[in-house]
Amino acid sequence: MNTYDTIMKLALERGFYFPSCEIYGDAPAGFWDYGPTGVNMKNRFVELWRRELVRRDGMLEIDGSQIMSKSIFIASGHITNFTDPMIICKQCGSTFRADKHIAEITGHELPELASGSEIDNIIVENKLSCPKCGGPFEKSTRFNMMFKIGIGPSNDEAYLRPETCQSIFVDFPRIFKTMRGRLPLAIAQLGKSFRNEIAPRQSLLRLREFYQAEIEIFCNPNRLDEVPKFEEMKKKVLRLYINDSYQEITAQDAVDQLIIPNNLVAYYLTLLVLFYEKTGIDMNRTRLRQLSTSEKAFYASFAFDFEVETSIGWLELVACNYRSDYDLRGHSTVSKQNLHVIDPIDNTKVLPNVFELSMGIDRSIYSILEHSFFEDFEHERTVLRLRPYLAPILAGILPLITKDGLREKAQLIYSQLKLDFPVFYDESGSIGRRYRRLEEIGAPFAVTVDRQTLSDDTVTIRNRDTMLQLRIQISELSNYLHKEAYKLVS
Amino acid sequence: MNTYDTIMKLALERGFYFPSCEIYGDAPAGFWDYGPTGVNMKNRFVELWRRELVRRDGMLEIDGSQIMSKSIFIASGHITNFTDPMIICKQCGSTFRADKHIAEITGHELPELASGSEIDNIIVENKLSCPKCGGPFEKSTRFNMMFKIGIGPSNDEAYLRPETCQSIFVDFPRIFKTMRGRLPLAIAQLGKSFRNEIAPRQSLLRLREFYQAEIEIFCNPNRLDEVPKFEEMKKKVLRLYINDSYQEITAQDAVDQLIIPNNLVAYYLTLLVLFYEKTGIDMNRTRLRQLSTSEKAFYASFAFDFEVETSIGWLELVACNYRSDYDLRGHSTVSKQNLHVIDPIDNTKVLPNVFELSMGIDRSIYSILEHSFFEDFEHERTVLRLRPYLAPILAGILPLITKDGLREKAQLIYSQLKLDFPVFYDESGSIGRRYRRLEEIGAPFAVTVDRQTLSDDTVTIRNRDTMLQLRIQISELSNYLHKEAYKLVS
Fold first, then answer.
1. Count of other CB atoms within 10 angstroms of residue B478
2. Is the pLDDT of residue B5 over 80?
3. Interaxial angle between packed helices B3-13 and A165-178, expressed in degrees from 0 to 180 and rounded to the nearest 10
4. I need a labelling partner for A441 at 20 to 30 A (CA). Which of A85, A365, B51, B249 fits?
5. What is the CATH code for B83-144?
6. In A194-298, alpha helices (H)
7. Where does chain B hold its CATH 3.40.50.800 domain(s)?
């Protein structure tokens, strides 16, 4: 079984994630639910994001509505541009995403902005036909990926947001004013976005409903190098991937050599890399890839993708786009509001530019799972080597046997810890089997209550990775877990 | 200004919440965004919910998709029953929610299940006409409150879920199996639900897109009194409201007197009340109201609402419904899956019954804000007396002046605390004014850096409520904040 399938099996069998509405035949593709194990892990990932990006940098976080008015997406360009090329079979009516289908069959990667006639020519040249029935294709069309919503009895047109950042852009004026903002101002948001993919696939990797954690940094385009906090991280070595070749280079050198355009962008890219180091992803299998002109989104003036290598190829986890004043200019024009702000430092009126870090949460969770997965053949076990602060369960509380008061003792310890830590009580099966179950979902510790516990109030703590056991006082457990578990490793 | 308007002003001016898409004329009604202050408070409320309900009771939490297949809502009854009565003006086409409109004009409260002819009769009897143009109404119709979604190029019918619990019901079989569930099993979920209200209003109180925290307890209907954990809370006095009169009575007595039907329901209602005690809501202005047959939702065999009194009347914060086997039976019939499980205790095959606690997060936030709001005329200040663990900001870090190294010292303290606590650095304006700003958003502490700090590394900590100051070592700050701030008060 390849690693993707192994992780999928684990996810399905151990409560990480599974298809939504799965008991129904009409369950739409591209929708997945997090189970109890997955929710815990995702929540702890979000906590880490809040700590290491939002609070570390002093960002402001908002939480906006997912349904937004039509005007927003006229201004953002999504009504016109947020489309995928589609081909439909004349004979059986099956639909395919044209670029993906062409790439799969011919190996030919179409640019993001390929025209309809380019696509039609490739189909004719390569004599492509419907893989389902062999029929010919109609001329390609473009399919808008936004979900349309009708509001109220009058059915007013609105949309589910295709990216969370639109909430940030339209809330910017109020936030800037009421929170006494100054440029550069970073506003963050965690929430759902929705894209009506033609062909969703690969579980968490191409969803129609997914979690984004987006950060939009509003800045004065004339002062992009005035970033004092860059000082403390400018020596960090970044792993860049530019024109198909790797460069390991400090953030400062990347700016000096004009690879990264300014200190502000360099600072936030470095902050992002430092964040991912703490997730346990193998950083030697990551890169900041500079996007070529044909690959960039329609609003980006330049872009890096933070990518991670997995068993099914390189995945984009974070799109880092310099959106210039594209967004505020568009919203200003359509809403007829003046969105300029004063920058007191150079005493100018400025329409802020935006640099963004647009993170996919679901893909990040998948990547962490894959990079943490370890088949320990020596000990015949599979282990998720998750960082303690990302583990869905921090410790299992296990009575060695259920008799002689050990069950009650273990349950008491569980009830003393459960409010403060994600712990789990388990008494069923042999102790070895219970260890295996905990290791499989990445619990870093197992606390075992044995006969000695009854006489001296000590328990053993078993370390998932070393498999070593330590005996400590019950009264020390909480401190131990707190210290060990929240120790940030980078 | 009445309290509702005062809270609204505070919310708008201090980043709690504000209308979504507000810079646009076509912003749909009933959608609100949380600003930075509101997000922090909401996140901390959710943490409390996780701690005091989910973890305390050992519930499993899931996070399901918001878009769900049509079959789900055939089975749940929402396609047929989830409607509001609507009247349309023949002349100008304005639409009104019939029951609300009739209640407003005539004071006559229609039952939940009033028929169309009942409504039409009342309109004729009371000679009601359109309040906008004076025109006559058409015969009343029913408006389905679900938002319809088209999936993929073939536009398959799906819906935004009108309640989060449907994800829990359809995920139940997998969760029960993979998490080795045993009845009673409580599954919780925090997430968004969507209702296409005819007339959304009052900011967070009647939204079209809103946060629910729902808990569904799957139980064996033959063992509803076998709840050992009820023992420790059966003496808790509940404030019940039944047939228009109050009864303060212990949970146990309520069961004995058949007011609450069984121990399981009594246990969860008590757990809920204990949770709200910790939110700072004035419990003397709350009640568990038993719903009459005409008021209950279509799936409930009996129901209590946990309500709180506010300046605009009693608000339902939590619907506590005994849904019997309504949901699993419906899903079993439509999906043709057998959803029975084995209960090893009485060794029977059972289709679980469900008792639910369906909490509105947004309304809870509003109620906490209102109950915490305090106009301190003596000291000419307004204070949000939020519990420290719910406060959006735990402490402000304030240099008394910005000169002589005080700014740098204060910024250093801020940077030492910011990763672990929601703290806020503020140097602008007089110290008194900075205190006021912190009090207004409920920050329980203000840490001031003064000249003495430079010589002996101490700071003052000012308590929001007592306004008293305490001088402590900087090295003790983190411990102090941790201890004071996370001390749960009930």
1. 14
2. yes
3. 100
4. B51
5. 3.30.40.230
6. 251-256, 263-277
7. 382-485
DSSP character for B196? -
User: Cα(B260)–Cα(B240) distance, rounded to whole angstroms?
Assistant: 10
Name every chain A residue with its beta carbon within 8 A of the beta carbon of B67.
28, 31, 147, 194, 208-209
Q: Where are the beta strands (DSSP E) in B27-82?
A: 32-34, 60-62, 67-69
Give the pair of three-digit tokens for residue A336.
């007829």
At A163, the pLDDT band (50, 70, 90 cuts) reads very high
Whether B120 contacts B29, CB under 8 Å: no
A403 contact B CB<8A = no
DSSP annotation of B5 reads H
| B213 touches B189 (CB < 8 A) | yes
For CATH 3.30.930.10, list the domain ranges present in chain A: 3-75+148-371
**Closest listed residue to residue B447, CA positions, set B419, B481, B479, B420:** B481
The ranges of chain A annotated as CATH 3.30.40.230 are 83-144
CA angle B3-B422-B480, nearest 5°?
105
Interface of A with B in 284-303 (CB under 8 A): none
**Residue pointed to by tokens 């799972």:** A369
Average pLDDT (A356-362) is 98
Rounded distance, CA A322 to CA A362, Å?
A: 23
Question: Residues 50..69 of B with a Cβ closer than 8 Å to A: which?
Answer: 51-52, 55-56, 58, 60-69
Q: Which of residues 314-353 of B touch A (CB under 8 A)?
A: 331, 334-335, 337
- Joined tokens for residue A60: 């402001």
Judge: B31–A67 Cβ closer than 8 Å, yes or no.
Answer: yes
Burial of B200 (0-12, 13-18, 19+ CB in 10 A): buried
A15-28 pLDDT per residue, tens: 999 999 999 999 99
Residue A60 near residue A175, CB atoms below 8 Å: yes
Structure tokens at A274: 């430092």
How far is C-alpha B232 from the geometric centre of its chain's CA atoms? 26
| Cα A206 from Cα A195, distance rounded (Å) | 9
Domain B3-75+148-371 sits in CATH at: 3.30.930.10
Asked if A65 and B20 count as a contact pair (C-beta separation under 8 A), the reply is yes
Question: Side-chain half-sphere of B357: how many Cα atoms within 13 Å?
Answer: 28
Fold of B382-485: Rossmann fold (3.40.50)
For strands B83-88 and B141-144, give the pairing: antiparallel
Does the beta-carbon distance from B170 to A23 stay under 8 Å? yes
DSSP class of residue A388 equals G
CA distance A244 to A190: 32
Reported pTM: 0.96
Is residue A322 a contact partner of residue A302, using CB atoms and an 8 Å limit?
yes
pLDDT in tens, B195-225: 999 989 888 999 999 999 999 999 999 999 9
Return the exposure string of A330-369: e unless at least 16 CB atoms fall within 10 Å of the residue's CB, then b.
bbbebbeeebebebeeeeeebbbbbbbbbbbbbbbbbbbb
Residues contacting residue A469 through CB under 8 Å, at least 6 positions apart: A448, A460, A461, A462, A463
> Cα–Cα distance between A251 and A235 in angstroms, integer?
6
Cβ–Cβ contacts within 10 Å for residue A117, how many?
A: 10
Query: Cα dist. B267→B59, B226, B272, B413 in Å?
Result: 14, 11, 9, 45
Length of chain A: 490
pLDDT tens digits, residue range B136-156?
A: 999 999 999 999 999 999 999
Strands (E), B344-425: 348-350, 353-360, 373-376, 381-384, 395-399, 423-425
**Is 0.90 exceeded by the ipTM?**
yes
Non-local (6+) Cβ contacts of A433 within 8 A are none
> Minimal CA–CA distance to A28: which of A130, A132, A147, A140?
A147
